[in-house]
Amino acid sequence: MNIQFERLKKISNQDIIEVNTNEHVLKQMPLANGVIFDEEFCIKWVEEKENQWEKYGYGPWAFVVDGKFAGWGGLQHEDGEADLALVLHPLYWGVGKQIFYKIIKKAFTEMSLESITILLPPTRKKLKGIYLLGFVFDGTVTLGGEYFARFRLYNPNVLEKLID
Q1: 28, 55, 119, 159 — which has fewest CB within 10 A?
Q2: Pfam families annotated for this entry (predicted)?
Q3: 3-state DSSP percent of the chain in helix, strand and coil, to 5
Q4: Digits of tens for pLDDT over the chain (164 positions)?
Q5: In DSSP terms, which residues pair with 130 in a beta bridge?
Q6: Domains along the chain?
Q7: Sign of CA pseudo-dihedral 101, 68, 124, 149
Q8: Residue spans of beta strands (DSSP E) within 89-135
Q9: Phi, psi of 107 (to 5 degrees)
Q10: Among candidates 144, 93, 150, 142, which has minimal Cα distance to 120?
Q11: Distances from the Cα of 33 to the Cα of 16, 106, 108, angstroms
Q12: For 5, which DSSP code?
């Protein structure tokens, strides 16, 4: 299986719309409730995601699996943090862990980040996997009027220093 990270601007709007309007995907995206993710909205959305690259030096990628757009995510700037997002079309849910490891490798080696966060909505009840990946609970936040639990994953090199 070949997994590539591309910029979102290289992906067709129709492919992005298909993922961001999928009913199974939307169940885990409370900030998308009530959003009409049409062509016009998609253009603005991609522009905002691309602007993060210019402003912060990182931003979301498009995930391309065996030449097909599978979803988007990576590291987004969220309130001063590098926040991990991973949004996949249900056909690709089985490759999420592989994509996750590619993201954290970039975060902790190429970018030398001290930690990354993830924000999970209250609908996300199964958290065992998050803890097994090394994340620790790090409080709650409210975005766009929605409540999220925040979890943090420390760079192993930084974590060693914190323990010493």
Answers
A1: 55
A2: Acetyltransf_3
A3: 45, 30, 25
A4: 999 999 999 999 999 999 998 888 877 766 666 668 899 999 999 999 999 999 999 999 999 999 999 999 999 998 889 999 999 999 999 999 999 999 999 999 999 999 999 998 887 878 898 999 999 999 999 887 888 899 999 988 655 554 44
A5: none
A6: 3-163 (3.40.630.30)
A7: positive
A8: 115-120
A9: -60, -45
A10: 150
A11: 17, 31, 33
A12: E
Q: Which two tokens stand for residue 132?
A: 């097994």
> Which pTM value belongs to this model?
0.87
Structure tokens at 43: 């253009």
**Angstrom distances, CA of residue 136 to CA of 4, 17, 25, 85:** 28, 32, 24, 16
Q: CA-to-CA distance for 68 and 71, rounded, in angstroms?
A: 9
Q: Which residues pair with 61 in a beta bridge?
A: 7, 73
Show the beta-strand stretches assigned E in 31-135. Answer: 60-65, 68-78, 81-88, 115-120
- The sign one gets for the Cα dihedral 68, 22, 104, 125 is negative
DSSP state of 133: T
* Residue recorded with tokens 């926040």: 83
With residue 136 as reference, give the H or E element that holds it.
Answer: strand 136-143
Nearest 5°: the CA angle 128, 2, 155 is 45
Q: Would you state the structure tokens that stand for residue 24, as one six-digit string?
A: 């199974």
* Token duo for residue 161: 């220093």
Helix (H, G, I), strand (E, B) or coil at 66: coil
